[in-house]
Amino acid sequence: MSVLPDLHLHYVQACQNMSQPENPFIARVLQEADKNDEISTKGITLKLAGNNHLVPVPRVTDDDLGVLVSVLGQSAFVTGLDLAYNVLTDAGAKTMATFLQENSTLRYLNLMFNDIGTSGAELIAGALHRNESLVHLRMTGNKIGNQGGMFFASMLEINSTLEKLDLGDCDVGLKCLIAVAIALTQNKSLKAINLNRPLLSNQQEENTVHIARMLRSNSSLVELHLGKHGMKNFGVERLCEALYKNSTLRYLDLSCNNITCDGAKFLGDLLKKNQTLEILDLNANRIEDVGAIYLSEILLTWNNSLRALSIVSNNVTGKGLVALAHTVQFNLQLSHIYIWGNKFDQETCVEFSDLIETGRLPPGCTDVAPYKVDGEVFLAELSHGLAKHRYWAPRCAAVAPGAANASLEIVPVSEY
């Protein structure tokens, strides 16, 4: 029988030894972990995110982290650490980097939306040159800048363990994107990367050209996020040309770009031959009816691999939406579709209402729900979508990891 770790007791003792006041939030989470009967067999993720509570909690500081890692260094049961939305700075990053160099059990680390800068990024990326256990790292929202991103690009040339890396909203620049693309031509372990919202000063799409070149040779990447890149139809065409030769990428996120109906046609032509892509996110582009109808025709007659499509806020009217509804009715592989933010007419409302009420489109697989007023059908918005849990996830364990979530469990690397 395994001996339980007694994390809370060790934490209290460490606070006394280091003359550091206890953080009641950390203390409570450790007490809950001690009560978990499966901690010694399955491990546990300590959920210390500063935004996941209905009541305010004292956010984790650099000093709090110093005490916490001294406790975790003695416990092999903790395999995940969620420190999102706290107030960790570069000093905390230094503490975490030292911990990563010494720890051999932590598989998941979430540092999103703290105050870590370039020097902190350098320390954490440097620690991953040696760390051989961490599989999933989220740096989302830390303003590490272009130079900080370059350190992670260099890390990808050395590290062969990391499978998911999130550098979205980190203010990285063109040089970082190019360096990451070059690193991924050789890296064989990374399965998913988020490069959303870089800071780009030109409109020449040089970054997209380099990413496309990488996709021609990369055989491990499964999930790629390129949202808010200012991508136009030229960039989409370059990506599609590369994906004709790529047989591993299953999730492509092109949300919040400048893609029009011509770009949708490039994607449609790709889907004629590519039977690997399973999720396509075109949220907040402008494919309009022409693009929506073209995609619907391809998905109806040529493609049987795509499982999820998002065309949220694409200026599509009833004509294009009805075409997509007909496609969903007959293409049984297409299980998830997201359409909110477009221009619904009565026929659209009736068609999607029928899909939902007959069970063809379960409520958890779309972002609309039908209702009636004076006998007329309307659609209301549901809080579902491909990015539902990208920035926030409920703390309770009742929500399945793949429920209306970004990956639909395509990439089997979660927080656990």
Automatic annotation (TrEMBL):
<protein>
    <submittedName>
        <fullName>LRC34 protein</fullName>
    </submittedName>
</protein>
<dbReference type="InterPro" id="IPR001611">
    <property type="entry name" value="Leu-rich_rpt"/>
</dbReference>
<dbReference type="InterPro" id="IPR032675">
    <property type="entry name" value="LRR_dom_sf"/>
</dbReference>
<keyword id="KW-0677">Repeat</keyword>
<dbReference type="InterPro" id="IPR052201">
    <property type="entry name" value="LRR-containing_regulator"/>
</dbReference>
<dbReference type="Pfam" id="PF13516">
    <property type="entry name" value="LRR_6"/>
</dbReference>
